[in-house]
Amino acid sequence: MPDRKVLRKIQESEKEADKLIAEAEQEAAEIREQAQEEAAEIRERAQEEAEQDAQERVEQAREEIMARREEILEEGDRERERLRGDAEENVDEVIEYALEEFREAIDAQA
């Protein structure tokens, strides 16, 4: 009889061990699944942050380019006005030079 009790105890212990193993495997599977979900969420957040960062950098570069463009255009406008002023100052001299050359040509023919 004692052998049957021992055998029954061993069988019960094996069933309990099988149950614990099954529960542990189930818990491990749930933990793996949860970890994979968390990893996917982290990757998604990282991707979104990277895209946002890239967009901000592009926008900042665009603003810098537009500001530099305006500086270049303003510099070009100032240079154009300076050249126009120089040309206007020289108009009288050019007219006087052309008239002098014309007079000399007429005098040379006379």
- Stretches where pLDDT is under 50 for at least 5 consecutive residues are none
- The number of domains: 1
For the secondary structure, the number of strands is 0
| Helical stretch tally | 1
What letter string, H or E per element, gives the SSE order?
A: H
Major sheet summary line: none
Description of the molecule:
Helices cover 98% and strands 0% of the residues. The protein is mostly helical and 110 residues long. It has one domain. The mean pLDDT is 93.
SSE inventory with pairings:
Blueprint: H1 2-109
Summarize the structure.
Helices cover 98% and strands 0% of the residues. The protein has one domain. The protein has one helix at residues 2-109.
Q: Main attributes?
A:
1 helix, single chain, 110 residues, 98% helix, mainly alpha, 0% strand
